Amino acid sequence: MGKILCIGEALIDMICTDKGKSLSDGNNFLKKAGGAPTNVAAAIAALGGNVELAAKVGVDPFGKHLIEVMQDFGVSTKWMLQDENYFTTFAFVSLMENGERDFYFNRGADGQLSSQEVEDIDLNEFSIIHFGSATGFLPGPLQAAYKGLLQKALMKDIFISFDPNYRQLLFKNDTQTFINQSWNFIDCCHFFKVSDEEAMLITGATTLADAVAVLLKKTNAIFAITLGKDGTMLGLNGKTMIVPSIAVKTVDTTGAGDAFVGAVLYQLSDRSLEQIKLLSESDWSKIVTNANKAGARTCEYMGAMEAFKHLTTDIFN
Question: Given strand 11-16, what is the order of strands in its sheet?
Fold first, then answer.
C-alpha cells in the first residue's frame, strides 16, 4: 500500500448549536476537528490507508486536540507542526433561520506552514499527494508552500490530486485569484474533484454542460463533479458518464466530499502512476461508485470525524 500525503489546513470548527441564531446571538458552540485535507486524511486512515498530514497548528489545547484526533485515526502526524507564535485556526459557523450561514474565520497557525518547512518532506516516500485548497489559496506562507510542493511533485512520478474547496465567505472579494490558482493546479494534476458550482465558477460557464465542455477541452486530468442525489459526473478520455449516488437518510452532509476524495485516493494508493494511467473507464466507474458509498455513509452521521469512524472497506462490497 503506497503512502499518501495530504497538505493544507487543520483547524477547529466551532459550530453554533443555537438553532437559527447568528454568531453574535449564539451562546452554545460545539468544537469539531476540521479542515478539508485533514478530513481527507482521516477518511483515508479510517479505510486502512497509509497517510500523512502536513499542516500547522498552534502550541495550545486546540492544536494538541487536532494532533490527537489524527493519531487516533492512524494518520501520521510527523508533518503536523506546532507554531508557538500563532494560535490554532478557528472557523465559527452558524446556520441562521433564513438558511444562510453566518461565518467568521479566525486564521492563525494553518496559514504559516512555509515552503522552507515542506522542503524537508521527502516525496520519494509517497505515491500520491493531495492538495485540498480551501485556505491554501489565501495570501501567506501556506500559499507559497502549496506552489513549491506542487512543482516538486511534478518532478517526481507522484499522482497529484486536487480539490479546490471553494468557500465564498473566504474569497468573496477576490474570486479571480482563487480561479487563477485553481487552474494552476487543474493544469498539473492527474485527478480533481469539484462541485457543480465550483465547475461553473472556475470555468466561467453559466451552465454545467458548458463547464464540462471547458474542462474536457482544457485538462487531461480525470475529474469528478459531485451532483448530490443526482450522482457523480466522471470525466475521462474526452467524455463523461454519470455514476449513480447511493440513497441514504441524510443526517449531515459535512465531510461527504472529503470522504469521497479519501475513498478515491485509498483505492489508487496500491498502484503506481503508470498503473493508474492504464485504468479503464470501467475501473474508474467502480472507484467512483465506492467513493459515492463512502460519501453516503458519511451523510448518515452528525459531524465528519464522527462519521469517519464508521468508514470501512466493507461498504465497498
Answer: 29-34, 11-16, 90-95, 101-106
Q: How far apart are CA 182 and CA 167, in angstroms?
A: 13
105: exposed, middle or buried (C-beta count within 10 Å: 0-12, 13-18, 19+)?
A: middle
Q: How far is the C-alpha of 282 from the C-alpha of 237, rounded, in Å?
A: 12
As a whole number of angstroms, the distance between CA 133 and CA 291 comes to 20
User: 236-270, pLDDT tens digit by residue?
Assistant: 999 999 999 888 888 888 899 999 999 999 999 99
Cβ–Cβ < 8 Å for 157, 173: no
Summarize pLDDT for 263-276 with one digit per residue, the tens. 999 999 999 999 99
From CA 34, how far away is CA 103, in angstroms rounded?
Answer: 15
d(CA 34, CA 11): 5
Lookup: cell for 94: 452558524
CATH topology (fold) of 3-312 = UDP-N-acetylmuramoyl-L-alanine:D-glutamate ligase (3.40.1190)
Q: Where are the domains of the chain?
A: 3-312
Residue 101, classed as helix, strand or coil, is: strand
